[in-house]
Structure formats: C-alpha cells, structure tokens
Amino acid sequence: MKQIEIYDTTLRDGAQTEDISFSVEDKLRITEKLDELGVHYIEGGWPGANPKDIEYFKKVRKSGLENAKVVAFGSTHRPRHKVEEDTTIRALLDSKSTIITIFGKTWDFHVKEALKISLEENLDIIHNSVAHLKKHVEKVFFDAEHFFDGYKDNPDFALQCLSAAESAGADCLVLCDTNGGRIPAEVVYIVDAVMKSVHIPVGIHAHNDSECAVANSIVAVQRGVSHVQGTINGFGERCGNANLCSVIPNIQLKLGMSCIRDEQLSRLRDVARFVNEIANIRHFKRQPFVGDSAFAHKAGMHVSAVRKRPETYEHIKPELVGNSHRILISDMAGKSNILRKAEEFGIQLDPDSPQIQAIVTTLKDLENEGYQFEAAEASFELLMKKALGLHKRFFDLIGFRIIVEKRREGEDPMSEATIMVKVGGRIEHTAAIGNGPVNAIDNALRKALDKFYPELKDVKLHDYKVRVLTAGKGTFAKVRVLIESGDEGRRWSTVGVSENIIEASYQALVDSIEYKLLKENL
C-alpha cells in the first residue's frame, strides 16, 4: 500500500486566517493533538518572524512527540545577500529543527516584478539556500511558490527552479497553488509534466480560492504525488488551504492509500473540533466527514433505510473518522460516543446500562444550552461521573459577591470578590482582589479552599476564552467560557455557559478545581 506523507501547516498557514490568533500555549496544545492524529510533519511557524514562533520552537523541543516531526518554515535567502549571512537562514537553523521548509519563487513574473532580479539569479538563490541548509539538517523541503501559475506562463523556467532545488539536495519538491486559482484538470497535466522531469518525491500545497483545494490535492496524489500539505478544517489565508479533515479520509478510504493508522483516523472529528475550540471558531455543522450533520438523518425514508443498512445513505462508516450516525428524532444517538469516552476515562460501563441514556439526555440538554465538551474533556468527565454516582462533592457554595470599582478616568478598575463555602461541617468566609472580576473570584475561591486542599496551590490558569453564543442580543447574549488549567504534571480544560459571564466563568473554575481534587483523591 502506497504511503502518503501528511504535512500539517495549521500553526503557520492556518494561523494567517482572519480572526484567528494562536498563543504559544495554543500552538503547543494543537501540536500534541496533531501528533496523536499521526500526521508526519507539523509546520510550527517561521522562526525569527516574531517572538511567539521563537518561543514555540524552544518549548516544542521538550514536548516528546511520538509520531510527528516539527518543521521550521522560511524563505530562500534574500537577493544580494550571502546565504551564510542571511538572517532568515540563520533563524531557521537557530530553531534547532531537524527539518526545514523554504519557499522560493518559481513564477518568472514574481522574479522580475517582486524580486527585481534575473531568472538566473533566482535559480542560484534556490540552489544556494537548499544546499546550505542541507549541510546542517536532516531534511529540506522546497515549496515551489506559485508553481502552477509559473508553469502556465513559463514551463521551462518553473521546471528549472525545481531542478535547482533537486540538484542542491532537496528531499521533496512541493508544488504550490499559492493563489488557489487552479482547477483539477490543470493540476493533472502539470503534475504529470513534473513527475517526468524530477527524480525525488513531489508534494502538493493547494489553496482554496476556487473551492478546489481538496480536489486538487486528491488528483495530485492520483498522479503520483506522495506528500500533501494542508490544515485542519481548511484554515488559511483568504479562502483557506486544503482541508486535511477531507484530504486524509479521501486518500485513505477512497484511494486505498495509507496516511495514518486506522485508530488515529478515528480521532479525526475530535481533533477537528478541538482545533476549532482553541481557535475560538464556531464548528461548521455541514463540514464533510467531521461535521455534526455529516451523518445526520431526519425522519422519513432515509431514517428507515439507514436503520436497516446505513450504507444506503452514508458513503462511509462514520466511526472510521470518529463521527456517528445521528437520527435526529432518535433517543439512541450518542451512545457509542459515551461508551468510547467512558473507556478513555477508565470508567467501567455496561453497554446496556440505562445510565448511558441518562448521560446522553443530559448531554443533549446541555448542548442545547450552549455547552460544548470537545475541548473541555475535564468537564465532560465530571459530568459522566456525576451521572454514574462516582463523583465526590468537595465543597458547597453558600454565596459570593463581586465588586468592580473604577475611581477615576484613566485608571484601571479594581475587582474584589467575597465568597462563602462549606467544606464538611466548616464554613469558610473570605475575600480576595484581582485584576478583573474573574481573577478576583478565582483568587477568593482558592483562598477559601487552600487550608482544606493544599494541593490546589499547584494549579495555574493557563488560558481563558469567551465566545458569544446568541448573536444579535448584544450584552444580553449567552456566552461560553473555556478555561485551561494545569499543574506540574498535566493540563485540563473546563467549560461554563450562562447569560452572565461571571457565572459562566465560575462554573468553569469550579469544574477545574473539582477535576484537580478528583484526580488527587482517587
């Protein structure tokens, strides 16, 4: 079975999406998920381009990935600069990444108009950049920028650019549809021409400006390409990149080629939703393979047929990509997901237990209120254990009050929280200040519980996200709060939902604390 390399650029190309900004911690969490998914390469960013990417490459070296290798991305050296002295090249090597991808111009129009150099100089720049990097790292991938446009205008020069990279020792030549304007028929004849001209692996990097990025990637693989670049959920500049959530299952399930292991493919939906949550992007219900509606059926002829033979209206088994059948009027939807999560959490659960349906019902009710648990598995584990009677209550809230005071224009407001909790038979009443109301209630709650549970001193809040759920209601809108917490050994995420942002935040904070205590008191 032919092996196809999957190269994910969510953290670099995907981060260029309008309305998306990943923190270093976001990038590290997504890296871990991509590694679990089994992609071969993760493009981490452009070292030297900004402090965030510099910090990411320092931290990711300690992450202990099992499947993927992190790639540093940059450009060929600048015209009229020696490759050994070029700051971009130096930054790539300083990242300590063993694999580097550089892009270079392959469209004569760009060489003449953007770089203002001769075609021969451009060929030297490509060759010198690849050759220099290859002396220091394990692999060098060459992204042939605007290759399809360049080939259509000047095929001889475009192929010469590939030859320059190949002769310098490049390990893969990646054909980029940078403007995203090509259609499959064009990709086929251009890839065919390339495959006859080069002697090393060829890749494809497609943008989606013509809604053809996935199709272009698939036909390129059919014509011999063995390396595919894309992003989770199709994130990317303008209209996005080839969506790996469609590319991977199409290659593996439709073309019969190997990308990742079957058990990794079954995590695809979870990874897609996780990345959306971290990016603070609403899930697209009708996204192929991984969307909520991808295998959903309403009442009528479809439902009757699917219950007897799912393949009557489903092109694959949804479980292969981590999805599930949804009979929209059925009370059975979600059972398999509950059983799978129970197994992950180490909970023994009889498949025929009526408790499963109770959990499904609770889950549906909460999702209807706006809860989402894909990136808040700690909250979901607590939900399951409460439903199964496996949860221990560590404290009860009697009440809290928060005061926000701004004394004069130009000064930051002050926040003070007062809280009263009951632990066992003891009542603790205390107060704390914070740089905002959420920080104040967090500080007050910890202060009240520290004497009973000193292990909470190890917990730190790493991230806090708010999403408005009911558009058009202004400041009266319902919000969802996602909190990431952690101690020295692990990290976990929790969720809260309310029209009141403080209440939603409090729910997520309490879940975070209870999760920590639950794990410490097993």
Report Rg. Answer: 26 Å
CATH architecture of the largest domain: Alpha-Beta Barrel
Uncertain ranges: 329-333
| Content of β-strand | 15-25%
Number of domains: 4
Spatial ordering of strands, largest sheet: 1-2-3-4-5-6-7-8
Average pLDDT works out at: 92
The number of distinct helices, counting runs of at least 4 residues, comes to: 18
CATH superfamily of the largest domain: Aldolase class I
Task: Kindly state the percentage of residues in helix.
Answer: 25-40%
The counted number of beta strands is: 16
How is the main sheet built?
A: 8 strands, parallel, barrel
- Which geometry do the CA atoms define? globular
Class from helix and strand fractions: alpha/beta
The CATH topology of the largest domain is what? TIM Barrel
| Distance between the amino and carboxyl termini | 45 Å
CATH class of the largest domain: Alpha Beta
List keywords for this structure.
three-stranded antiparallel β-sheet, eight-stranded parallel beta barrel, 522 residues, TIM Barrel
Structure in a nutshell:
With 522 residues, the protein is an alpha/beta fold.
Account of the 3D structure:
The protein has helices at 24-37, 51-60, 87-94, 108-115, 119-134, 147-153, 155-167, 184-197, 213-222, 244-254, 262-265, 268-279, 301-308, 335-344, 354-369, 377-387, 437-449, 501-520; strands at residues 5-8, 41-45, 69-75, 99-105, 139-145, 172-177, 202-206, 227-230, 296-297, 326-327, 396-405, 414-423, 426-434, 460-468, 479-486, 491-498. It has 522 residues and is of the alpha/beta class. It has four domains: 5-279, Alpha-Beta Barrel (TIM Barrel); 295-333, Irregular (H-NS DNA Binding Protein), CATH 4.10.430.20; 335-392 and 457-522, Double Stranded RNA Binding Domain; 395-452, 2-Layer Sandwich (Double Stranded RNA Binding Domain), CATH 3.30.160. The strands form four sheets. Strands 1-2-3-4-5-6-7-8 form an eight-stranded parallel beta barrel, surrounded by ten helices.
